[in-house]
Automatic annotation (TrEMBL), chains A, B, C, D:
<dbReference type="InterPro" id="IPR004810">
    <property type="entry name" value="PurU"/>
</dbReference>
<dbReference type="GO" id="GO:0006730">
    <property type="term" value="P:one-carbon metabolic process"/>
</dbReference>
<dbReference type="InterPro" id="IPR002912">
    <property type="entry name" value="ACT_dom"/>
</dbReference>
<comment type="similarity">
    <text>Belongs to the PurU family.</text>
</comment>
<dbReference type="Pfam" id="PF00551">
    <property type="entry name" value="Formyl_trans_N"/>
</dbReference>
<dbReference type="InterPro" id="IPR045865">
    <property type="entry name" value="ACT-like_dom_sf"/>
</dbReference>
<dbReference type="Pfam" id="PF01842">
    <property type="entry name" value="ACT"/>
</dbReference>
<keyword id="KW-0378">Hydrolase</keyword>
<dbReference type="InterPro" id="IPR036477">
    <property type="entry name" value="Formyl_transf_N_sf"/>
</dbReference>
<dbReference type="GO" id="GO:0006189">
    <property type="term" value="P:'de novo' IMP biosynthetic process"/>
</dbReference>
<dbReference type="InterPro" id="IPR002376">
    <property type="entry name" value="Formyl_transf_N"/>
</dbReference>
<comment type="function">
    <text>Catalyzes the hydrolysis of 10-formyltetrahydrofolate (formyl-FH4) to formate and tetrahydrofolate (FH4).</text>
</comment>
<keyword id="KW-0658">Purine biosynthesis</keyword>
<comment type="pathway">
    <text>Purine metabolism; IMP biosynthesis via de novo pathway; formate from 10-formyl-5,6,7,8-tetrahydrofolate: step 1/1.</text>
</comment>
<dbReference type="InterPro" id="IPR044074">
    <property type="entry name" value="PurU_ACT"/>
</dbReference>
<protein>
    <recommendedName>
        <fullName>Formyltetrahydrofolate deformylase</fullName>
        <ecNumber>3.5.1.10</ecNumber>
    </recommendedName>
</protein>
<feature type="domain" description="ACT">
    <location>
        <begin position="13"/>
        <end position="100"/>
    </location>
</feature>
Length: 289, 289, 289, 289
């Protein structure tokens, strides 16, 4: 992290959740005034379903982080907030898991290099070697570990956990990683794994969604980025997109047509996560776009 | 039907289905040349799933219908075609079933009066009286028959069948008609009933799809027009549309937001059906747009 | 307006614009706390182009309007705000001008009756009589005054101004009203007239945009709702939508295809205006969706 | 080209244009029957604007190309057709011109390597060296020649013409090539140069369209793939897409947001061209999707 100086004020993202009640915005904005902060962006949501209040603020100030926290602490205590304060634009440390399909990885790496995706990727981990060249072209370390049985699967998942610890990983992205994660891994990384599913959920869960879509004769196919839970393809949805198809498309053509939606949907979800725009409200997500 | 004269050549729509094999297009186009016809529009599709060949042709000729049929008959026989030849633009006789929601009926009636929907509607039939005024404003006969138990439901369905016979109905439209039709009625009118379901099928079948969509936290809601079969919300899909929503929308707001998609999706399906652009290929539809 | 009581707290929309500077949010939220208010929705925007700060708040309180204003006044004065405080959901008094095309009027009236459009329409004014039946079916007063020359045009515009005064009109909607308003009228009602233009502006300004679109061979046609200024089709854009077309569509078919986009685009713009979600930032609009 | 054998029948694409008149389809399909061909796909269009008839057919036959041509020749002569018969799926030889923006080139090269873009790219030619690495990662020859004045521009354009001759180029793609081609070059390669313009034409022609779009406050930004003519940004449009933006986006953010639409729009246009699905009808294109 860079430290703010008077000459270069820092920009921060504050997000928090607490029970909905009067006075929250005033208390928080008061603390920000105390921290000589200016609010640049602000979004809030009161959930009727859970009675909770969600807020995301971007602020600019020339005081250091510790001073911001000091003035926030009484407010945090009073409202019993779950909160986070992060430097705006700081790239989130991201581990990407892949198998053999290249399109979503290519999109993530290309956009990251273009400076459009606020993540750093210390490692791409795969159960195949196929995407090594692509990762390395973008200067990203790549490891592959075959997953062929229960033992090798356990070893792969242990490698995931080790990599998470080693690189202080904040986000794990399943970029068309074609293995189901164990419930234990899902639980340990709860709220930190994003998957791209190649259908418009909740339609066509599980394997071969394009084949299912073809058989059902849908007129739009889609992609869904969601948090991974131990309940397959049932985790909270972050983003979805669809594209029109017609009767003349084979299941194989749907696979190709859907790639754009998969790539853009996953990239969008990762971007929002990295910008602290995704908050969890039970089984649903709040997206402060 | 108007009869074609040399001065006013008739325009016809020919659709047919047969086993896929070489020579079909040449044989059909030969018959059309014989009938002094000019092909104005032509679409075809070979189904890999079922091995069948589908074609839709619009043609112009100054010979009467009987003469067209006469030259087509040998071709029809040779290729064992299921076929249909109809005057282009002839409004299809349509029975509309409604309950209390007005938006899809309003859209159909408004578009029909504007000359944009090629149907005539000799009757709107409802299990409530709520939409009488709307139907009558558009000069459309309206009847209501309460459906409260098995007997009244049977009576309603008998009235549907009677109306179909009486008005020589070609299409029955369920414009947010909130009763499930009996398997017998579905069977009798197979391929002639179009329903609008207020979700993006196959997600959220059955009752209260917007409530289901809200609970699941989807980021797009949709509407699906499909043929009705005895398998609820599982009939062949004709058209689908979606619209973006976010976390801040209540289930009630989704109901309102979805109305546009329901109206346009149903209207599109009815239009295509009325233009003989919808053909059945097993559980899927061929749409010759 | 209804008055709030302790048992039935009032819901209010506060919008304001001022020079961007630190402390605004805190000062405003402090006043709201003083007024025993709870902030239900909040959006803000700092314009880099003009250096101005825009905010919209929805709040709930059991104190009357005068008390809210009293606590706000020092803040308003300190920051030199242009501001507005209105009861949330209060229907805006709207004058609709039409010619002969029915689709946007039909959509507005249908949605208003369904309770989905927060306006009241004391008068529909037209230069033709064609839409009288439609207006009257929805219980809306209708007047027509022919516009055939400079004198009758001046008389029509005077009738507009009289109606605005008489009904205390807050918004004038040109629902496919096919006359160009005089610069004087545009100026007098600046920021209060919304037009629907049947193209994706800035493409195809002026007359016959669908014909222009056909000639140019565009692959998407669109609609644009914008504020009217004396500079034809150049006023600030509020909302735009497009729909895909292909080479086979005639200019006449484009007219029909575009109706949906015109209706939904105009309705969306009117809804946002009526909910105080549209603010002006020079030649651009801020939309707090 | 591969030669068809009885065991491996060839698949061909026939496209032609002629004056619209009766009997064309029958004559062509008769020739195809003579060539032992089976029609797999067929599309046609009669242009009211120009009185011309356009057709594209995909057919399968086990006779060699010369035999197909032999049976077609009388038909071609009789109807005075401009025609083309190409092997289906044959990759078109494509020269890509770029400057420094990587996204459209990356998309084309990635899709080509995935087997989804039916082109071969013997050369990427640039006025900068910036994209050499990217081209070479995908195994594509890359040359750069600076363009700084009239002479170097002439030299660059001569290199284009030489490369076209040397590699028997069928299509030149301007993948965000930021120089205006001379009228002479446009004329020599008429109907064979596709450009991607980063706006929804005809809005925002010329330089800095995203800056123009921001200033005008449009609510959707877009991309347009079109044939290049000597009339800047006025050539026949092949494909267009748009994406929604709001007031909070800076002109710089629009540049980033628009990249997806540019990439997909250009790729779509190139794919259709390579599949012989794009025909010219005066200033408009016929797209047989």
């Amino acid at each position: 992290m860079t430290s703010a100086t008077a000459a270069h004020p820092g920009r921060w993202v504050l997000t928090f959740v607490c029970r909905d009640q009067p006075g929250i915005v005033h208390a928080v904005s008061g603390a920000i005034v105390q921290a000589r902060g200016n609010i640049l962006e602000s979004q809030q949501f009161s959930s009727d379903d859970t009675g909770r209040f969600f807020m995301r603020l971007e602020l600019e100030t020339d005081v250091p982080r510790a001073d911001i926290v000091a003035v926030l602490e009484p407010v945090i205590g009073r409202f019993e907030m779950a909160w986070q304060l992060d430097e705006a634009g700081r790239p989130k440390r991201t581990l990407v898991l892949v198998s053999t399909a290249a399109h979503t990885l290519n999109d993530l790496l290309f956009r990251r290099r273009s400076g459009q995706l606020p993540v750093e990727i210390p490692l791409v981990l795969s159960n195949h070697g196929a995407l090594r060249d692509l990762a390395e072209f973008y200067g990203t370390p790549f490891e592959s570990l075959p997953v062929v049985d229960a033992d090798s699967k356990a070893a792969f998942e242990q490698r995931v956990l080790d990599a998470v610890a080693e690189h202080d990983i904040e986000l794990v992205v399943l970029a068309r990683y074609m293995q189901i994660l164990s419930p234990e891994l899902c639980e340990k990384l709860r709220g930190r794994i994003i998957n791209i599913h190649h259908s418009f959920l909740p339609g066509f869960k599980g394997a071969n969604p394009y084949k299912q879509a073809h058989a059902r004769g849908v007129k739009l196919i889609g992609a869904t980025a969601h948090f991974v839970t131990s309940d397959l393809d049932e985790g909270p949805i972050i983003e979805q997109n669809v594209v029109r198809v017609d009767h003349s498309r084979t299941a194989t053509e749907l696979v190709s047509i859907g790639q754009d939606e998969e790539s853009r949907t996953l990239r969008q979800a990762v971007t929002w996560f990295a910008q602290d725009r995704v908050l969890l409200d039970g089984a649903r997500t709040i997206i402060f776009r």
